[in-house]
Amino acid sequence: MKKYFFFLLTIWLPSLCYGQKTDSSTSFIADIVKDAGPNFDLKKALNDPNTLNKILKNDIANKEVYALIETLNFEFKTFENTTTNQSGLGFSYQYDKDFNTALRTYKKTQFGGSFSLQANGNVAFNSNINPANFLNNKASIHLFASSGGVKRRLSDADFKKLLELDNILIKLPKSEIDKSEAFKEKFDIMLSNVTNQYYTDFSLVGGLESNQLFTKKQWVLGSELAYDMKLWNTNSNSNIFNVFDYPFALLRMLSGTDKKFTVDGSTFPTILVGIDYVKPLADSIRERYGDSSSYIRVKAEVGFKTKLAKISDQVIYFVSDYRIYKELNPSASLVKAGYDLYNYFVASIQSSSGFFVSYSYGKLPFDAVNDKVYSLGWQYKF
Amino acid sequence: MSDWSNTNVAQSRTWGTLIGPPLKQIDEDFDHSGTIQMQNFAFWNNLESSDERNIQAIALARTINDVFNNDYRATFIAGSDAETTIAAMSGILNAAAKTVNDLADVVEQNYQFPV
Question: Is the dihedral of CA A375, A377, A381, A382 positive or negative?
Fold first, then answer.
């Protein structure tokens, strides 16, 4: 708790020194106290990430000196350790910056290169309750190819019609948009001008992976190949190749969300494969089994998200992710202990209002044991 | 950041692109769309790694750029080009708490749309 107040102090102190509290933030804090009435509990309010994020965004992030906080996508959040049932405050940060360097088009395919910096992680004020105890900081050089999508210019007539339809749709309430004749007409115009989109990215990556206390850390140098395919046109026959969406297309039809069995080609899973040279700097698991040497690992990830149903105003999604990490030529002791192979699968049913049911199984690098976790809850998106 | 209004061309084209086919990233009327966050977009998978999400964000930014250029006949304002604009849009798309209005802000700074 001391660390937490010290952290808040480091954020607020410069704010006080600048003495530029905004009218909106003054009003916001006054509103919190007023809404709580005579039962206002300062300690409870300061333990609520919702309050802290609003203060951060209203009181601090608008100032130039704190522009960095916004760039970092810094947010307070509540962490919960499902094993010990402990919960507490912490924060997450995410920084992604792409610097594009070149772009060439050859036979309708765009080729390009870019340089990227990425940093992300979750930090709990009590590190023992952090279930996502992983910080990832890296730089990468990308070469990519992009083809398909919307590459043809609309005709003059269709362009004029599109603007007319948008002017109608923009005034409609949500409940009437999908059913409107204007939406159907826009659907036809837009889909006549789109083809399947393929995006391939090859990258060279270098970075540091660690837990939040840096008691486990490792340098990683590797290469990744990612493939993202979007079959945008729902009327296209090529949608049948998205076999992953078959059970969900059936559920959408049975629930009345879709009038007929319609496979959504835009939800084709995103696939990433890679090979890394890993140099452990501190890894208690590997040290326990007498193997702290550098090693090579291969890895793969498949992410998938599709619509399950639309019930009233709520959209229900099925979301999943599978990751595998396999060390090449591991020592016999690591193989025997099961630390040469990391499998992790997580799937969730989520509503657009925040309700979710999830199941996860397996472990990621730095995890000591396989976890099988069922969760049911409400996720508030700050 | 500009106030969310259907008289703002960049905001109305951003909404028209995100709601309509082919992208269908949001499912909300214009008036309530400005505050929708990226983590509520159809493409956003909160279970996948940042590497995978980054790929999807860049691919989506490229498609949005194509829709603006080819469907809405947008042109870049002086000093802007496709690559810097796509990088700026993918930066927004990649940030969970950024909103449709934040995205429209980047659109307003980089494109001009015929009306």
Answer: negative
- The listed range with the strongest mean pLDDT (A43-47, A195-199, A223-227) is A223-227
Could you give the count of Cα atoms lying within 13 Å of A379 in the half-sphere of its Cβ? 17
- Would the CB atoms of B66 and A151 count as touching at under 8 Å? yes
Tell me whether strands A135-149 and A109-124 are parallel, antiparallel or unpaired: antiparallel
Pair of tokens at residue A342 = 């990391």
- Give residue-wise pLDDT tens across range A324-358: 999 999 999 889 888 899 999 999 999 888 788 88
The stretch B17-33 carries a mean pLDDT of 93
C-alpha neighbours within 13 Å on the C-beta side of residue B94: 31
With CA atoms as reference, the chain B residue closest to A121 would be B50
Asked whether the whole model's pTM tops 0.90, one would answer no
Residue A35 has, within 13 A of its CA and on its CB side, a CA count of 9
End-to-end CA distance of chain B: 22
Contact B49 A166 (CB under 8 A): no
Q: Cα–Cα distance between B7 and A259 in angstroms, integer?
A: 35
A335/chain B closest Cα distance in angstroms? 26
User: Is the backbone of residue A140 left (phi > 0), alpha (psi -120 to 50) or beta?
Assistant: beta
Q: Give the number of other Cβ atoms within 10 Å of residue A293's Cβ.
A: 10
Question: Which runs of E-coded beta strand occur in B1-94?
Answer: 75-76
Which of B20, B54, B82 is facing A186, going by the closest CB pair?
B20
Sequence length of chain A is 382
| Residue in A closest to B69 by C-alpha | A153
**Residue of A148, A259, A158, A265 lying closest to A197 (CA atoms):** A148
Q: Where are the beta strands (DSSP E) in A17-150?
A: 75-81, 86-106, 109-124, 135-149
Task: Tell me how far apart the alpha carbons of residues A239 and B65 are, in angstroms, rounded to a whole number.
Answer: 24
Residue with tokens 């840096």, as numbered in its chain: A214
- Chain B residues near residue A304 by CB distance under 8 angstroms: 45
B23 and B61 Cβ atoms separated by less than 8 Å: no
Which ranges of A19-155 does DSSP label H, i.e. alpha helix? 23-36, 42-46, 49-55, 67-71
- Whether A381 sits inside 8 A of B50 (CB atoms) is no
* CB A290, CB A313: distance < 8 Å: no
